[in-house]
Amino acid sequence: MNKIKSFWNLIKQIAGEKDYENYLASAKHNSCKKKSHKLLTKKEFYAKKITEKWNGINRCC
Q1: Contact present, 61 and 35 (Cβ < 8 Å)
Q2: What does the pLDDT look like over 3-44, one tens digit per residue?
Q3: For residues 23 and 40, is the Cβ–Cβ distance under 8 A?
Q4: What is the pTM of this model?
Q5: 45: how many CB neighbours lie within 10 A of its CB?
Q6: CA torsion angle for 21, 26, 31, 34 (degrees, to 10)?
Q7: Which one of 18, 22, 41, 56 is least enclosed by Cβ atoms within 10 Å?
Q8: 19-29 and 42-54 helices, crossing angle to 10°
Q9: 42, 17 Cβ separation under 8 angstroms
Q10: Residue of 43, 44, 27 whose CA lies nearest to 35
C-alpha cells in the first residue's frame, strides 16, 4: 500500500498538483529572509503560474 501511495504522490507532483503545497513549504522555509512577503492564495498562485506560462514567446521559431 505504501508503494501505491508513493507512486500516486509522484504522479501528482509531475502533474503539478503539488505546486501550491511546495510553494507554501518553500515560503515557510524562507520566511526568516523575507518578513514582508505576502503569501499568495491558491487561486492567485495558479493564475500567476498560467500567466507566466503563456506570456511571451511560446514557440521555438
Answers
A1: no
A2: 999 999 889 888 888 899 999 998 887 765 556 678 999 999
A3: yes
A4: 0.65
A5: 15
A6: -110
A7: 56
A8: 110
A9: no
A10: 27
Domain edges within the chain: 2-54
Q: Grid coordinates representing 28?
A: 515557510
The answer to whether the beta carbons of residues 36 and 53 sit under 8 Å apart is no
Query: Which amino acid, 48?
Result: K
**CA-to-CA distance for 13 and 36, rounded, in angstroms?**
29
Place of cell 492567485: 44
Rounded CA-CA distance 31/25 in Å is 10
